[in-house]
Design brief:
5% of the residues lie in helices and 25% in strands. With 212 residues, the chain is mainly beta. The chain has a single domain (31-174, 187-206), classed as Sandwich (Protocatechuate 3,4-Dioxygenase, subunit A), CATH 2.60.130. Strands 1, 4, 9, 10 and 11 form a five-stranded mixed beta sheet that branches. It has a four-stranded antiparallel beta sheet with strand order 3-2-7-8, with no helix packed on it. The protein has a two-stranded antiparallel ribbon with strand order 5-6. The relative contact order is 0.25. Bound molecules: fe (ii) ion. Residues 34, 36, 141, 144, 146 line the site of fe (ii) ion. Fe (ii) ion is lined by residues 34, 36, 141, 144, 146.
C-alpha cells in the first residue's frame, strides 16, 4: 500500500518518492485551506460550536459530536497539538465577507473552534452538520469541516468529509484524493458515548501526522 505525507496535497497517485516507504498506516493528506478561513475569529473559540455565551438558542441544524485521535506514523499519540476547525453553518454559509452564498447566516453558530489534544492525542468537538454550498468555479461542495492541526513538528491543513453523502462523488477537492487517502479524510459513524441530543450525530475521525 502506498503512503502519503502529512502536509502534502495528493493529486492522483502518491509520488514515487513516497512509494519507497512501506507501511499500512496512511497519512492524513492535506487539502487546501480554502477561501473562508476566518478573517476575524469569534471571541469564543471553544470546542462547542453550537452555543455562544449570552445567547438563549443553540445553532440551527443537526448537532454533530466529533471525536478522534491525532497520532504519528508510528501510531504514537500526538499530545498537546492544537486542533482548529471552521465550517459552514447548516445552510451552507460561512461567516466570511468573501462568501457570496445568499443562504442565511446563523447568529448562534460559532463557526470556529479550537481544542488541544490530551495525553492520548484525543480531541472532541460539538458542532453542527455543515450544509453543502455552491463554491465559485468548482461547483457544489459536499458537507465538510476544515481542520488545522499544529503539532511540534507538523502542521496539517485539510478537510474532513461525512460518510454516505451523495455530493462526495462530485466534490471537486475530494476527487483528487484517491484510494486509502480518500478513506482517510472521511469520518466514520460512531456509537455515541454517553447521553447526546435526540437528533445528534456522532462521528470519529482520526488524524495521522508524519512526525507529530
Ligand atoms: Fe469549506
Amino acid at each position: 500500500m502506498a503512503v502519503g505525507v502529512s502536509g502534502l496535497t495528493l493529486c492522483g497517485d502518491a509520488p514515487s518518492i513516497l512509494a519507497q516507504a512501506t507501511t499500512t498506516r496512511v497519512f492524513t493528506p492535506s487539502i487546501i485551506l480554502g477561501p473562508f478561513y476566518p478573517q476575524i475569529k469569534s471571541a469564543e473559540q471553544d470546542a462547542d460550536l453550537t452555543v455562544l455565551a449570552g445567547r438563549q438558542k443553540r445553532a440551527e441544524g443537526n448537532v454533530v459530536h466529533l471525536t478522534g485521535r491525532v497520532t504519528n506514523m508510528k501510531g504514537e499519540p500526538v499530545r498537546g497539538a492544537k486542533v482548529s476547525v471552521w465550517q459552514a453553518n447548516t445552510h451552507g454559509r460561512y461567516r466570511h465577507q468573501s462568501d457570496a452564498n445568499p443562504a442565511p447566516l446563523d447568529p448562534n453558530f460559532q463557526g470556529f473552534g479550537t481544542q488541544t489534544t490530551d495525553a492520548e492525542g484525543r480531541y472532541r468537538f460539538k458542532t453542527i452538520k455543515p450544509g453543502a454550498y455552491p463554491a465559485p468555479v468548482v461547483g457544489m461542495r459536499a458537507p465538510h469541516v476544515h481542520f488545522e492541526v499544529e503539532a511540534k513538528y507538523d502542521r496539517l491543513i485539510t478537510q474532513m468529509f461525512f460518510p454516505g453523502e451523495a455530493l462526495n462523488e462530485q466534490d471537486h477537492f475530494l476527487q483528487f484524493v484517491k484510494g486509502p487517502y480518500r478513506e482517510a479524510v472521511i469520518a466514520r459513524p460512531a456509537q455515541p458515548t454517553g447521553r447526546i441530543e435526540a437528533d445528534a450525530l456522532s462521528f470519529v475521525w482520526d488524524i495521522v501526522l508524519l512526525s507529530g
